[in-house]
Amino acid sequence: MTDQPPPHRSDGPQWGSIPEQHRSGYVPPKRKRRWPWIVVGVFAVIFIAGAIGNVVSPPKPTVAAAPAIVTPSTIAPTPPPSTTAAATTTTAPTTTVFVAPPSAAPAAVYPPTTLDQFKAFARSGNPTAIHPYKSEAVGAVGICPQPRIEATADANLPVRELQADEAAFFLQRGYLDQNCGGVLFLYDSPSTSHDEGFNVGRVLYDVGSSNPAHRLEVDTSDITPAGSFTLTY
């Protein structure tokens, strides 16, 4: 009996153990596909995050607006068409009225010779410079009384100024409107003797039946043409 040599051993894969389709060469195993699992994981994370957000802050319910209810009282009735013709407004013509400016007061004339001049001269005086202390009615008492006034004034006033003050006092008291006459006596003091007559000034107003009927005399203590004037009207 012939000795057989031992079979040859090799550390590599045996040819007989390799499948028929792989005998031509070694083919590495196929890698597993992982991307479908990644996509599924991403969607799972998004879904879980949305669920947590709804739990923490739930969406507010939408409330539908209630329809407006129109009651008959809120509907204004439509007025019927007017059959009345529109009224026509007629504007009356404007009339321009010319108003003349007031005439200027006549200038004071000295000595005055008319009643208007006397009034203008009196308006230049100061009636408060005459201080009456006694007044009485004389003449036809009850029919046409004549006022008689006793007063004091400054005897040192210039003649024309004193006469203007006398005339202003007489005009302001309305003695010229009584048409009965009157008299004003001026003294330097109430204690002065009246037997000697006035010692500062005088206004004498006479009304008679002759023409001219009115006589007005204004005097100072100096009864001269320089201290006295008379007018009739």
Number of helical runs? 3
Task: Report the mean per-residue pLDDT as an integer.
Answer: 76
Report how far apart the termini are: 206 Å
Q: Helicity level, as a percent range?
A: 10-25%
Could you explain the architecture of this structure?
The chain is of the alpha+beta class and 233 residues long. It has helices spanning 35-56, 115-122, 159-172; strands at 131-140, 144-152, 182-187, 201-207, 214-220, 228-232. A hairpin with a 7-residue loop joins strand 5 (214-220) and strand 6. Helix 2 packs across helix 3.
How would you summarize what this structure contains?
The protein is an alpha+beta fold and 233 residues long. It is built from 3 helices and 6 strands, in the order ααββαββββ. It starts with 34 loop residues before the first helix and ends with a strand.
